[in-house]
Design a protein that fits this description.
This protein is α+β, with helices and mostly antiparallel strands. Among the domains are: about 90 residues, no CATH class; about 140 residues, 3-Layer(aba) Sandwich (NADH Oxidase), CATH 3.40.109.10. The chain is built from eleven helices and four strands, in the order H-H-H-H-H-H-H-H-E-H-E-H-E-H-E. The two termini are about 30 Å apart. The mean pLDDT is about 90.
C-alpha cells in the first residue's frame, strides 16, 4: 500500500514451490498440524503428566514468589495459593527424585518470603504456620547447597561496572562467518559460552533450552546434510551446534510459540558469548517443513519432546576473511511511536 492508501498489486518471485493456491493451503495445513500435534503430545497444556513439566511448574512458581519480593513495596503475605502450590509440587518432585536444586530454590524463595513478611511487620495469617511446617519438611528431604532461590541485593554500581561496554563496536563487529580457520574450538570455550548464555531471560525462568554439539567430521557432516544454507563453508566449522527447547516445560495453550522466543533469545546470547571470546559463528536457519524436521530426527538423536530452533556453525577466525556487508536501516525506520486506538465503552462514550 502506498502512502496515499492506494493498494498495490504485484507478483514477486520467490524460491518457493510454484503450485496452486489450494495445494499451498493444504501444505500449510499439514505443517500447522505437525506443530500442533507435537505441542499437544509433549507439552503440559492438556495435562502436566511429565516429570519435566512438574519441574517447570516448580520453577514457575518459585520465580513468581521471587518476582513478588523484588518489587519496591511487596504486598504483605501475597500469593497464598502460589506459595502453597510451589511447596506441594516441590515436595512431590523431590519424592520422585527430581532435580534437588530446583526444590532447594523453591525452599529458599519461600524462606525469603517468610523473612520479608516478618520484616514488614504485618500480622501473620493462620496459614503461615502450615507454610513453615512444609518448609521444615522439605529441609529434612534436601541437603543444603547454598542460596539458590529468593532475592538478593545488588548495587547499580556493580551492574554498571560488570556490564559496561566501551563502545557499540562489540555489536557492530559481529559478523556471520563463512570462512573458518582449521584450528578446532576447545570444548572448554564452548562450555564457557553456554554458561554465559544461560543467563538469558526465559519465561518464568524455565530455561527450556539445550545445546547438542557435533564436532567437525562425520557427525557435523550428517547434520549439515539436512540443512540447505551451509554450502561451501559448513564443513570448515569446528562444531555445529543444534539449539533446541523442551516442549514439556510449557503448560498453557498460550505458550505454544514460547519455545521459539526463548530459544531464539538464548541463541543470540550464545552468539554474543562466542563473539566475546573471539570465536566466529554463523546462524543456520531451521525454518523447514515437517519432512525436513523428520529427516533430521532420523539422523541425529533429538528427543521427541524437543523443538529444533536453529543450527549454529562455530569456528576459529582466520587472519583475514570476507564477510557480507549486510546493510542495516537507520533506527528511525525501526522505531515506531506507540499508538492507542480510540476506546469506546459499553455506553458508546469515548
Amino acid at each position: 500500500m502506498t502512502a496515499d492508501g492506494t493498494q498495490l498489486r504485484f507478483q514477486a518471485r520467490t524460491d518457493g514451490p510454484r503450485s496452486g493456491w489450494f495445494k499451498k493451503l493444504m501444505l500449510l495445513g499439514r505443517e500447522y498440524y505437525y506443530d500442533a500435534t507435537r505441542f499437544v503430545t509433549h507439552s503440559g497444556a492438556l495435562s502436566p503428566r511429565h516429570l519435566a513439566t512438574l519441574r517447570a511448574l516448580v520453577t514457575m512458581d518459585t520465580h513468581r514468589v521471587e518476582k513478588g519480593l523484588a518489587v519496591p513495596h511487596p504486598k504483605p503475605w501475597f500469593g497464598k495459593l502460589i506459595v502453597r502450590r510451589v511447596l506441594h509440587n516441590a515436595s512431590l518432585y523431590a519424592r520422585l527424585d527430581g532435580d534437588a536444586n530446583v526444590c532447594r530454590a523453591a525452599v529458599d524463595a519461600v524462606e525469603d518470603y517468610l523473612d520479608r513478611n516478618s520484616e514488614l511487620g504485618a500480622p501473620e495469617p493462620e496459614w503461615a504456620a502450615q507454610i513453615r511446617r512444609a518448609v521444615t519438611g522439605l529441609h529434612e528431604q534436601l541437603q543444603p547447597a547454598g542460596l539458590l532461590g529468593g532475592t538478593k541485593t545488588v548495587s547499580r554500581e556493580t551492574i554498571h561496572k560488570a556490564g559496561r561496554l566501551d563502545s557499540m563496536d562489540f555489536f557492530t563487529s559481529r559478523y556471520s562467518i563463512r570462512d573458518f580457520a582449521p584450528e578446532p574450538v576447545p570444548q572448554e570455550r564452548i562450555e564457557a559460552a553456554v554458561a554465559a548464555a544461560q543467563h538469558t531471560p526465559s519465561v518464568c525462568n524455565r530455561q527450556s533450552w539445550s545445546v547438542h554439539v557435533f564436532p567437525r567430521g562425520p557427525q557435523a557432516g550428517a547434520v549439515l546434510a539436512c540443512q540447505n544454507g551451509n554450502t561451501g563453508f559448513g564443513h570448515t566449522a569446528s562444531h555445529i551446534l543444534l539449539i533446541t527447547t523442551d516442549l514439556r516445560t510449557f503448560v498453557y495453550p498460550g505458550e505454544r510459540n514460547q519455545g521459539w522466543v526463548d530459544g531464539g533469545m538464548f541463541a543470540m546470547s550464545l552468539i554474543h558469548a562466542f563473539h566475546a571470546q573471539g570465536i566466529g559463528t554463523c546462524c543456520l536457519n531451521w525454518s523447514v517443513d515437517s519432512r525436513a524436521d523428520r529427516r533430521l530426527r532420523t539422523v541425529a538423536e533429538i528427543p521427541a519432546h524437543e523443538n529444533v530452533i536453529m543450527m549454529l556453525a562455530v569456528g576459529q577466525l582466520p587472519e583475514e576473511l570476507r564477510v557480507a556487508t549486510s546493510w542495516r536501516p537507520e533506527p528511525g525506520h525501526v522505531i515506531r511511536p506507540g499508538r492507542i486506538r480510540q476506546v469506546t465503552n459499553q455506553d458508546g462514550a469515548q
